[in-house]
Amino acid sequence: MENGIYLFGAYTIAWLGVSFYLYINAKKQKGIEERLTDLEAQLKDKE
Amino acid sequence: MKTDRTITILFFLLLVLIPLDFFLIFRVAPTEKVMGDVQRIFYLHVSLALGALLAFTGVFVSSIIFLWKKKIVWDSVASTCAGIGLLFSTLVLITGSMWARPIWNVWWTWDPRLLTVLILWFIYIGYFLLRGGIADKFKKAQYSAVIGIIGYVDIPLVRYATKWWNSIHPLLSQEGGGLDPVMKKVMLFSLATFAVLTIFLFLFRFRLAGIEERLEILKKKMED
């Protein structure tokens, strides 16, 4: 396939970009949810 | 809970739509006579541009609503949309460049269409730089809403750049490009897939914004 490197390169970069966006946000969400659970437990102890 | 269910439904819908889109692009769509197989970047490039357009329209509308209603939730909607718009416009620039190299023999040229997209990209980079530099939540929301509204002025310039100025960028089919009927159907399917993807990404990121808000409230409670 002529110029296949550009075609597959474009599709790979685009889908990797979208996947990376999802991965970063999923990781962030996991971290925040853990922090929320910790804080909620601390708040219960305080009360 | 309702959002979680919608996200799950959209996720499974995308698991069907994305492979089907790949199948249509690489197996069903005919090969373009002049450009050859590399023209298949078109389906991705235009669909990403549609995703960016939807997201930036979201920024524009929610920024107006924020300035009108003064409710911080609309700022969350706007910044979520801006993030997705920035992601898609970055990918539009990259995929466009990878299409330009074999066809125009250059990675980049100062064509009006390319330039207006680059300006749009810089506007939203500025949007996030500004957000990062202001501590006060309400002020941050107000300034970003103004940028979100002013930045949207560039969208018609992007759309009509090929019409108003001398441009080497391909025209859309309605303007005389003359797409093959099969290519047109594949393109429409690809656009629909990316519209669903944009909504999915928005709901996914917006849910995170809600959780961040909850964390901030809890932190304040702890401090009190």
Helix vs. strand class of chain A: mainly alpha
Estimated radius of gyration of chain A? 20 Å
Q: What is the share of helical residues of chain A?
A: over 70%
Mean pLDDT of chain B: 89
| Beta-strand percentage range of chain A | under 5%
End-to-end gap of chain B: 29 Å
Labels describing this entry:
heterodimer, A: 47 residues, mainly alpha, 1 helix, rod-shaped, B: 224 residues, 7 helices
Brief sketch in words of this structure:
The complex is a heterodimer of chains A (47) and B (224). Chain A is mainly α and 47 residues long.
Task: Outline the structure in words.
The complex is a heterodimer of chains A (47) and B (224). Chain A is an all-alpha fold and 47 residues long. The model of chain A has no long low-confidence stretch (mean pLDDT 89). In chain A, 91% of the residues lie in helices and 0% in strands. By secondary structure, chain B is an all-alpha fold. Chain B has one domain (2-223). Chain A binds chain B through residues 1-4, 6-7, 9-11, 13-14, 17-18, 21-22, 25, 28-29, 32-33, 35-36, 39-40, 42-43, 46, and chain B through 36-38, 40-41, 44-45, 48, 87, 90-91, 94-95, 98-99, 101-102, 197, 201, 204-205, 207-208, 211-212, 214-215, 218-219, 221-222.
SSE diagram, text form:
The complex is a heterodimer of chains A (47) and B (224).
Chain A: H1 4-46
Chain B: H1 2-28, H2 41-69, H3 72-104, H4 112-133, H5 137-151, H6 154-164, H7 181-223
Helix pairs in contact in B: 1-7, 2-3, 2-5, 2-7, 3-4, 3-5, 3-7, 4-5, 4-6
